[in-house]
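Hey, quick one: can you model this chain's 3D structure?
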Amino acid sequence: MLLVGQFVFFIWLALQRLIAPDEGFYVMAAKLVTQGKVPYLDFFYPQMPLLPYLHALPVKLGGPTWPAVRVLSALLASLLGLLIWRHVLDHFGKFPALLSLVLYCGSGMAFIWYSVVKAYAAAAFFLVLAFFLVESGYGKRRLGLL
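Sure thing. Here's the predicted structure for all 146 residues.
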């Protein structure tokens, strides 16, 4: 339920925002990747190499439009909120976890930058996911260190 609520919130934000100046550049790079082009070799791309491949899935499903790719950003932002909620719930309880989720969704970073077609939502999600996995001991158990 928390994931769905956040997803609805971030989708609403994503569709209400004006288009950021370089969102079209990211969408075009994803479109070119779906056509078999390679960043740096076939077209100029000054960002990290994974991003066009990450954005290629929504471009393939919904076409090369910014709303289609913003859905991915909204999903990653929602999953990030769920990770934050889970971490705080495990360590501090239900009320602080809910408060952390409300503070996260209301923060300027989340509702301004995580709802656009840029690297922010993906980078933050994968960073917090890595922290969550390391902190929970999952990585150590997989490696046989625990």
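One thing worth noting: Residues 2-20+63-143 form one domain.
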